[in-house]
Amino acid sequence: MYEGKTKIVEDLGDEVLLHFKDDITAGDGAKHDVLENKGSICAEVTARLMKMLSEKGVYNMFLEFVPPKKIRARKLKMLPLEVIVRFKKAGSFVRRYGGTEGEDLPQPLVEFTYKSDALHDPLMCVEHLEVLGITSREVAKKVMDEAVKTATILKEFFQGHGYELWDIKFEYGLDKDGNVCLGDEISPDTMRLRKSGEIFDKDVYRRDLGDPMERYKVVLELCRSISL
């Protein structure tokens, strides 16, 4: 059905099967490596976190974890957007607006970016989404509300283990009935997660700070507190 940088999506009719690859990328795909067990770690972290979110009332794609690196999921018509929820200043936010890495924002901030490596994922406002025919203002508002709710649940989960969730990227789609549904993945690839100055996310890879899989394994062990 579709192969991206880090996943293969297999069509099962009314459902899909997501195969998580061992590939890791950064810089719109300019940096690329294959790391052993990366796919299985990200698949299991995604499965466990989405299972927890389902139990807390967050509608998402997750149906079943198929070890070691597959997830059976709802088929969605994905919006070509990355939806970022920021609790602290970091990454591209600091490059655009200044400030200090790790500085608190006064409230959760939602950013839309257009999902395009060729265009370097440009920022979009709700009016862009309407004018370009990506989605309606009503759907955009629903996505924003769901993103903040979901990110807050995840922030509280990691806080309970002594970690800080700085920001997180979501992707959303519409199910067969037109309902907004969380898709793609939730893993160290899609968040900034810190503890006492240590990095437990893809910034380890972006910044060449060592073996990212050692930190990803720590996140997986945290998530194994959630039963499947």
Automatic annotation (TrEMBL):
Keyword Lipoprotein set for record: no
Transmembrane stretches, start-end: none
Keyword Hydrolase attributed: no
Pathway info: Purine metabolism; IMP biosynthesis via de novo pathway; 5-amino-1-(5-phospho-D-ribosyl)imidazole-4-carboxamide from 5-amino-1-(5-phospho-D-ribosyl)imidazole-4-carboxylate: step 1/2
Catalytic reactions on record: 5-amino-1-(5-phospho-D-ribosyl)imidazole-4-carboxylate + L-aspartate + ATP = (2S)-2-[5-amino-1-(5-phospho-beta-D-ribosyl)imidazole-4-carboxamido]succinate + ADP + phosphate + 2 H(+)
Broadest EC class assigned to this enzyme: ligase
InterPro entries found in the cross-reference section: SAICAR_synt/ADE2_N, SAICAR_synt_PurC, SAICAR_synthetase, SAICAR_synthetase_CS
GO biological process, alphabetically ordered: 'de novo' IMP biosynthetic process; cobalamin biosynthetic process
Occurrences of domain SAICAR synthetase/ADE2 N-terminal (ranges): 1-220
Domain of life of the organism encoding this protein: Bacteria
Entry EC number(s): 6.3.2.6
Pfam family, one: SAICAR_synt
Keywords linked to the UniProt accession: ATP-binding, Ligase, Nucleotide-binding, Purine biosynthesis
GO molecular function list: ATP binding; phosphoribosylaminoimidazolesuccinocarboxamide synthase activity
Family: Belongs to the SAICAR synthetase family.
Name of the protein in its database record: Phosphoribosylaminoimidazole-succinocarboxamide synthase
Organism in which the protein naturally occurs: Fervidobacterium thailandense
Taxonomic classification: Bacteria, Thermotogati, Thermotogota, Thermotogae, Thermotogales
Gene behind this protein: purC
